[in-house]
Design brief:
The structure is a single chain. The chain is built from four helices and no strands. By secondary structure, the protein is an all-alpha fold. It has one domain. The longest helix has 26 residues. The N and C termini lie far apart (about 40 Å).
């Protein structure tokens, strides 16, 4: 999502749906991949230091916190006349994005061993 000069999100036309969908999907896949790497490292002492783990969690947490912009874009599109195909994709992305936020917020409490 781009920002206008005043820092507010610049809302996109429905023609940007493939791009926004790809950004959401790749972001979710990246977060899941990163989390699995963190879990794997958890069982291998001294592979990652605490600072690296905390920084990774912070960066991905901030990314998740910014998903409201995509959620708002999807909500705006939802209120317009969409083709059945567009409607299906917007609905899928809404569910995918919401599930990602819930998953990240509950899963990223890596217990210390």
């Amino acid at each position: 999502m781009t920002r206008s000069p005043k820092g507010q999100p610049r809302w996109h036309p429905i023609s940007a749906l493939p791009l926004i969908g790809r950004v959401i999907d790749e972001g979710v896949e990246g977060a899941e991949r990163q989390y699995s790497l963190l879990l794997a490292a958890k069982h291998r002492p001294r592979v990652l230091d605490d600072h690296t783990v905390q920084r990774t969690l912070q960066v991905y947490g901030e990314t998740i916190d910014d998903l409201w912009v995509f959620d708002e874009q999807l909500a705006r599109w939802s209120k317009t006349g969409l083709t059945p195909r567009q409607r299906a994709e917007v609905d899928r992305l809404i569910l995918h994005s919401g599930a990602c936020v819930r998953w990240w917020r509950t899963s990223c409490r890596l217990p210390r061993s």
